[in-house]
Amino acid sequence: MSSILVAAIDFGTTFSGYAFSFLHDYTKDPLKISANTWTAGVGNLVSLKTSTCVLFDSTQTFHSFGYEAEEKYSNLALDDEHHDWYYFKRFKMMLYNKMGLTREALLEDEKGKQMEAMKVFSSVIGYLKDHMWTTCENQLSGIQDSDITWVLTVPAIWNDSSKQFMREAAEKVGICANKLMIALEPEAASLYCMHQPIQKDTENSTFGVFKSGQKYMVVDAGGGTIDITVHEVQENGTLKELHKANGGDWGGTKVDESFKSLLADIVGNDVMEAFGSIHKYDFLEFLTDFEVKKRTIHPKLAEKVTFKVPISLLETYRETNPGNNIKTAITSKSKYKNKLTWTGDKLRMDAEITKALFDESCKKIVDHLKQLFRHSIVKDVSSILLVGGFAESPMLQVAIKEAFKNKKVIVPQDAGLAVLKGAVLYGHKPKTISARVCKYTYGVGTTMNFDSAIHLKSKKIIKNDTELCSDIFSIHVSVGQLVKVGEPQVSQNYTVINPKSTSIGFNIYTSNDKEPTYTTEEGCTRLGYLTLDMPDTTKGMDRGASVHMTFSGTEIVVTAVDKDDPEKIVSTTVDFLG
Ligand SMILES: Nc1ncnc2c1ncn2[C@@H]1O[C@H](COP(=O)(O)OP(=O)(O)OP(=O)(O)O)[C@@H](O)[C@H]1O
Ligand SMILES: *[C@@H]1O[C@H](CO)[C@@H](O)[C@H](O)[C@H]1NC(C)=O
Ligand SMILES: *[C@@H]1O[C@H](CO)[C@@H](O)[C@H](O)[C@H]1NC(C)=O
Ligand SMILES: *[C@@H]1O[C@H](CO)[C@@H](O)[C@H](O)[C@H]1NC(C)=O
Ligand SMILES: *[C@@H]1O[C@H](CO)[C@@H](O)[C@H](O)[C@H]1NC(C)=O
Ligand SMILES: [Mg+2]
Predict the structure, then answer these.
(1) Considering the domain 438-575 in this protein, what is its CATH number?
(2) Which of 134, 262, 282, 555 has its CA 20 to 30 A from that of 429?
(3) Which residues form the signal peptide (predicted)?
(4) What is the third-level CATH fold of 5-188+420-432?
(5) What is the pTM of this model?
(6) Cα 519 from chain centroid?
């Protein structure tokens, strides 16, 4: 599906944006990608992504997104009129590692008020889509909705339910199902790096990693997740995944959390909470200020760092702890004594304490990468491509370079935009990723004839005088298995079990185990349900479908045809949110 225009939405934990490019430009210069510039009023930050904050009024009607929402909410808070509004920030993490996710899932806002998560996510996608149409009207004149392929990015470490949730959120705002692609964030970043202009075929070129046969690791360090994939360049220039996508939730916001914990350690959790809810405006401004300071922290830093702390925080402290003062609160804690001073609205921190705010996330990332390099297939990977906004932090860069002295660590220009721009490239040419590695073992739950030599007695059931074994995990693909993109991994024939049934259905399971026997084993999870529609019952029991399942795409795809007529398509539904 070659579209005239590819538009991508990078829905990040902390920052989001969109970008697009025309097919005719792409063929001449793949990096000719347009993106909107967003301006934050506070601090006059200009960037190609805006903050992932969304505001709804008291009737749950969408009001604003991004820096605009942040400012509006802050102003409402100043007038103490924010209580009935719904304000969501950093809510993408809700979809990370969420078990039993459903379409009806609720999301809690800043004040614990609930709203349907689907509505929140789809409003954001709808806003970015409409924003592109209105802001880029001139560039897009003559373009129709149907000329566009949309790409939505998700972390590669997300499970299939979360990916489906994002897809449905996008379809709700009018993005046509067959015009929508899901791209995996580190893969998109990998494609972006591949297209960097500096890529030359010389030994010392930075991007010499993109020669055939080369292997490299892409580490997408975002605000929420650290998302890792390992690629090998094939002879025809496509990329093959070498190890299943992996990572964790140790992104840049962990640093913000460390900072908040440090403050709470001094003034108390109750004071921090009261400050955050009563002095909303000050609190938000304080966090924005930290975000700016955070970017200036580097390993060689030796001077004290000064943070401007709202006076209302000290006031809250005095109200809650009458008679105490902040000086004694600090000196009474040996770890802060002589390392931290707090006078008036100035908090001054020793370089060591400030740098230590990065320790937890950097350590977790480094430890994880060390584990990863122990795998035989990853061992000889010699380059690490560091992308994502957090990759721009000198603290993280140095931590990784120090820990992996024998590896080449590359941080491309615009590391924070690699995912967004790479998603556009992916939309033009998804086949650039030619093989992936299965993240789980996938299969369906079935029954088979009972064999006392191998089956557990407890699994025996008797039907129509036959002994059957229930809960069998019928494996389709195994974790770690290399699967080729563009071809189905499983072809199977299924028949109806009842002459009157109008569908054939299966539970789909995943397992972390290579060879699970039963769907009830530890590590197995019911992922969802597959339905094959068989509405015409005239042939009774003599009905069935020939089913193809593809596990090598960014989403699981199931197609089916009638067992007696390959021209007759059987409609299928894969539901991971039921
Ligand atoms: N120069 C910098 N120094 C330190 N941290 C930075 C810098 N630039 C960005 N960050 C941090 O990087 C994070 C944002 O990165 P990015 O925009 O890639 O995340 P995201 O796409 O919103 O999140 P995710 O991919 O996890 O959903 C924030 O925590 C931000 O504070
Ligand atoms: C490439 O590296 C070699 C030594 O490894 C050096 O002599 C040469 O000048 C370098 N070339 C460029 C263009 O930097
Ligand atoms: C590139 O090569 C790989 C490995 O040989 C193959 O699987 C893939 O289909 C090829 N892709 C293209 C676009 O030629
Ligand atoms: C039950 O078993 C009998 C004999 O084995 C067989 O003829 C019949 O078709 C079976 N019925 C069903 C519903 O499987
Ligand atoms: C499924 O049935 C078709 C004919 O309907 C046959 O050609 C094919 O080999 C069967 N596949 C399997 C896996 O049994
Ligand atoms: Mg990101």
Answers:
(1) 2.60.34
(2) 134
(3) none
(4) Nucleotidyltransferase; domain 5 (3.30.420)
(5) 0.93
(6) 27
